[in-house]
Amino acid sequence: MEILSPPKSSNGHMACAMKVPVAVVRLPRGPDGTSRGFDPNSPRFQALGPSSLSSLVTPNTAELEEEQQGRVLLRERYLRSLLAMARQPVSFAMYEKVNVTALFGASDIDILNFQVSELQTPLGVQREALLRCSDIIAYSFEL
Amino acid sequence: MTEWQKKSPLEWLSYVNKEVKVLAAEKNTYQGWVLTVDPVSANILLAQPLENGKMSISAVLGHAVQDVEIVNEADDTMKEKLSHLFMPEERQRYSQEEMERKKISLKGWLETNHIPVKEQGELQTTLCVAGVLTIDPPYRPEDCNSSNEIILSRVQELIQGYLALQQCQV
């Protein structure tokens, strides 16, 4: 019962201090070991990151820099292609010769899932859907 | 992981601007000019010009790629065409003074919103927010770069608001 009783006025020092809220302007933290991001030590990176990352094998900084530049160029183009694909009709070739079309919405950063709308399936139209990229062989659209 | 997924970014880069034939799972084949290979998923992005002047873009997912064979190299006009495909519109040219004015004005706006911002780069033209986000000239929402998507979207929203405010004043 002692624990549940409200703080008495005599030891209300803390309670008093809490009554005046202090505005704290702070930006969210950057990626760390337990959040999403590309921190090489994070469990997420270790699970999903390419183990072929040659930068882990070759400690040569010049080579590493070159590889990183290449990776940036490749990735930027790919991300821009996803932007160009948004709200466009895209046809997906899935395994077992299944072909479906849908309006592309978004992708997660690891390109593991695509969010699509108006998915035309053999069983009717699905308003919203997530497609697992592991089920897709290829996709195409016109620009 | 397949042979294709295990390649390094520099190896993938050597396929860019080449016409290739891709053999994928279930005997599917795809042909086109390589725009890029996503270094995260190893997806190959191909472009194939259509007769109506449009481009057909197809992507073969990295896990489904079985073989990639180079059949042709791009000439300069093709390379040019491929590199501009997804890039944003050619930038409007601004004079140096105009750019400086834009930078100071945006910096002031961010500071009134309690966002810590510094100038950096060789010519001090890049704005850096909290050491994790950069804004390059001409300082539009799409000129922001950050690996932290939460900060990125917040700062982009702020810039959007700032631009909307300016539009109202004009």
Query: Describe the biggest sheet of chain A?
Result: 5 strands, antiparallel
Principal-axis shape of chain A: extended
Number of strands of chain A: 5
Q: Report the mean per-residue pLDDT of chain B as an integer.
A: 90
> How many whole angstroms does the radius of gyration of chain A measure?
25 Å
Helix and strand pattern of chain B: HEEEEEHHEEEEH
Instruction: Output the radius of gyration of chain B.
Output: 21 Å
Distance linking N and C termini of chain B? 56 Å
Beta-strand share of residues of chain B: 25-35%
* Helix percentage of chain B: 25-40%
What gap, in angstroms, lies between the N and C termini of chain A?
70 Å
- What share of residues are in beta strands of chain A? 25-35%
**Order of neighbouring strands in the sheet with most strands of chain A:** 4-3-2-1-5
Structural summary, described in words:
- The complex is a heterodimer of chains A (143) and B (170).
- Chain A has 143 residues and is an alpha+beta fold.
- Chain A has a domain at 87-140: Roll (SH3 type barrels), CATH 2.30.30.100.
- Chain A has four helices and five strands, in the order ααααβββββ.
- Chain A has helices at 13-19, 43-48, 54-57, 61-85; strands spanning 89-94, 98-107, 113-121, 124-132, 136-142.
- A five-stranded antiparallel beta sheet of chain A has the order 4-3-2-1-5.
- In chain A, a hairpin with a 2-residue loop joins strand 3 and strand 4.
- The longest helix of chain A has 25 residues, at 61-85.
- Chain A starts with 12 loop residues before the first helix and ends with a strand.
- Residues 1-16 and 30-36 of chain A have low confidence and may be disordered.
- Chain B has 170 residues and is an alpha+beta fold.
- Chain B folds into two domains: 9-83, SH3 type barrels, CATH 2.30.30.100; 96-169.
- In chain B, strands 4-3-2-1-5 form a five-stranded antiparallel beta sheet.
- In chain B, a hairpin with a 5-residue loop joins strand 6 and strand 7 (126-129).
- The radius of gyration of chain B is 21 Å and the shape is elongated.
- The relative contact order of chain B is 0.10.
- Classes of the chains: A alpha+beta (143), B alpha+beta (170).
